[in-house]
């Protein structure tokens, strides 16, 4: 490592030891969600037979000051950017689960993200008046029969139900693209149920 990665917390902010100017790179911070192009941090260098190259860079986010690691080979960051739009006016329990779902995605925990998405649909149904303790299928039917699912949207909920069942009961690793579809539908559903009505 070119410089040892060291930081400490000074009150509510992070202080970095030995951070220096590094090659700037545009990325989305996995902590604050800001699109940034930081140029302060540390380089992780590897070398063979006297030839060295940068394997990864630990950037300091200029907004929230948290460290974001960028890997040169895979072009990925840890933590990654959260997928899905921010939704306003969510009840606390719904907001918590939606954030967990998006955070799992950002950390490449796609199976966990889809399992939380399934749980989130159940919480939405209960929050909208369904009884507790019902089966997932009954919660889907409740959302559908009470007009919460947009036209032609039930197949999306069935997709999440089926996908969630597989994640819960079979040894199957979920993929990034599939998880993006699930979160896209959830964000649309939350937008229709919570954000748009409160804008009027």
Structure commentary:
The radius of gyration is 21 Å and the shape is elongated. It starts with 5 loop residues before the first strand and ends with a helix. It is of the alpha+beta class. Strands 3-6-7-8-9 form a 5-stranded antiparallel beta sheet, with no helix packed on it. Helices cover 42% and strands 21% of the residues. The longest helix is centred in the last third of the chain and has 24 residues, at 176-199. Helix 2 (110-127) runs parallel beside helix 5 (176-199). The model has no long low-confidence stretch (mean pLDDT 82). It has 2 domains: 6-78, no CATH class; 92-199, no CATH class. A hairpin with a 2-residue loop joins strand 6 and strand 7. It has 5 helices and 9 strands.
Topology (elements, then pairings):
Elements: E1 6-10, E2 13-17, E3 20-21, E4 27-28, E5 35-36, E6 40-48, E7 51-60, E8 67-71, E9 77-78, H1 92-106, H2 110-127, H3 136-145, H4 154-169, H5 176-199
| Outline type | elongated
Helix-strand sequence: EEEEEEEEEHHHHH
Q: Compute the number of helices.
A: 5
If strands are numbered along the chain, what order do they take across the biggest sheet? 3-6-7-8-9
Unreliable stretches, pLDDT < 50, 5 or more residues? none
Percentage of residues in helical conformation: 40-55%
The amount of beta strand, in percent, is: 15-25%
In angstroms, what separates the terminal alpha carbons? 55 Å
Count of folded domains:
2
DSSP strand count: 9
Largest sheet: 5 strands, antiparallel
Properties at a glance:
200 residues, alpha+beta, 2 domains, five-stranded antiparallel β-sheet, 9 strands, elongated
């Amino acid at each position: 490592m070119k410089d040892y990665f060291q930081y400490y917390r000074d009150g509510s902010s992070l202080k970095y030891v030995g951070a220096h100017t590094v090659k700037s790179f545009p990325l989305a911070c996995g902590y604050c969600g800001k699109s940034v192009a930081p140029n302060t941090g540390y380089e992780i260098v590897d070398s063979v037979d006297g030839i060295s190259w940068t394997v990864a860079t630990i950037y300091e986010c200029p907004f929230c000051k948290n460290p974001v690691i960028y890997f040169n080979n895979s072009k990925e960051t840890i933590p990654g950017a959260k997928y899905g739009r921010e939704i306003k006016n969510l009840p606390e329990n719904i907001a918590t689960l939606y954030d967990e779902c998006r955070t799992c995605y950002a950390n490449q925990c796609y199976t966990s993200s889809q399992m939380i998405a399934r749980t989130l649909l159940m919480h939405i149904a209960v929050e909208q008046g369904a009884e507790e303790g019902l089966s997932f299928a009954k919660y889907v039917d409740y959302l559908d029969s009470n007009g919460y699912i947009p036209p032609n949207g039930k197949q999306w909920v069935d997709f999440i139900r089926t996908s969630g069942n597989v994640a819960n009961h079979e040894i199957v690793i979920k993929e990034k693209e599939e998880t993006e579809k699930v979160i896209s539908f959830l964000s649309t559903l939350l937008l229709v149920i919570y954000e748009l009505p409160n804008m009027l």
